[in-house]
User: Which sequence fits this backbone?
């Protein structure tokens, strides 16, 4: 098959490009190539948005597929240190790109030839559909590993789109790397394969005709209202985070103060935990009834004592169970 001539090409400074081709009627393929790993810099985001605008305003409505010309990576996310130091990066570069994708007036599909990490995976999630290379690449939110808390839209897009809270938890709190089969089972992607499989998917779902009525983008704005709201109102989201951090700091300081007071009082002999006899008046008693494990018989209470001899904890035991004397 001869190379498909590009419809247009846009530069990505300093040495990258986005090429738009048409592999099938009304199917527009945006291939970005920004070495070494398609980081989401301001220049990358600006060129990506411009490419989407050109397709939307200069070509017949159809389907947009995005992919990478670098086989190892779809995108490796942000240049994090640069992103947090660049004034206006989120509200002026990254979030406008995500909003454009999330509410685009045609079906969008991200074809992932390799890794999609952190904001690279988030960018893929802003598309309507995702296909992953079955043989190469992982999908991962690794912010936990380098100490970057997720901002509101970064988290909400997964909360809204993933079918399982289990997958959401595993992504965020375990930083798991999902291979292709795991990503498909977890609902991160809609299919596995390359361009041939994607074109077949587009044809089977009749996606090229979905935007004809003119309401496709509006439907998506309503579907993903929560994330769209966070993207639109960056300032409010950031102020909410600041208030939460201030409140967290106050709670931490208050908790530390109480612990210090307790430690000082303990050294002076003034601290006293509630004893078992105060907490459980009927100690060392045998009661013939069903216990909390569903066993019928006599329930025994075992006392753990402090070094001073005072009883501190009463532990309920099942019949025949021994207490751990080290507790």
Assistant:
């Amino acid at each position: 098959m001869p190379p498909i001539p590009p419809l247009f090409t846009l530069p990505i400074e300093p040495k990258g490009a986005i090429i738009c081709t048409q592999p099938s009627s009304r199917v527009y393929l945006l291939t970005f190539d920004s070495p070494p790993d398609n980081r989401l810099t301001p220049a990358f985001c600006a060129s990506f948005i411009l490419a989407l605008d050109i397709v939307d305003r200069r070509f017949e409505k159809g389907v947009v597929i995005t992919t990478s010309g670098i086989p190892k990576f779809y995108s490796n996310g942000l240049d994090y240190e640069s992103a947090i130091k660049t004034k206006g990066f989120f509200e002026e570069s990254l979030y406008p790109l995500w909003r454009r994708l999330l509410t685009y007036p045609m079906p969008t599909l991200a074809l992932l030839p390799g890794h999609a990490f952190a904001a690279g995976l988030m960018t893929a999630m802003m598309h309507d559909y995702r296909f992953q290379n079955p043989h190469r690449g992982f999908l991962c939110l690794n912010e936990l590993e380098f100490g970057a808390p997720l901002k509101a839209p970064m988290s909400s897009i997964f909360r809204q789109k993933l079918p399982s809270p289990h997958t959401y938890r595993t992504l965020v709190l375990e930083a798991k790397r999902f291979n292709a089969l795991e990503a498909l089972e977890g609902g991160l992607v809609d299919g596995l394969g390359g361009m041939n499989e994607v074109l077949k998917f587009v044809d089977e779902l009749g996606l090229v005709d979905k935007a004809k009525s003119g309401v496709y983008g509006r439907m998506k704005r309503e579907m993903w209202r929560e994330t769209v709201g966070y993207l639109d109102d960056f300032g409010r989201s950031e102020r909410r985070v600041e208030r939460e951090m201030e409140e967290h700091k106050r709670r931490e300081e208050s908790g530390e103060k109480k612990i210090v007071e307790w430690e000082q009082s303990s050294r002076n002999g003034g601290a006293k935990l509630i004893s078992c006899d105060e907490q459980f008046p009927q100690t060392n008693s045998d009661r013939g009834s069903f216990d909390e494990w569903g066993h019928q018989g006599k329930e025994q209470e075992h006392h753990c004592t402090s070094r001073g001899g005072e009883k501190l904890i009463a532990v309920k035991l099942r019949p025949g169970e021994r207490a751990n004397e080290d507790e």
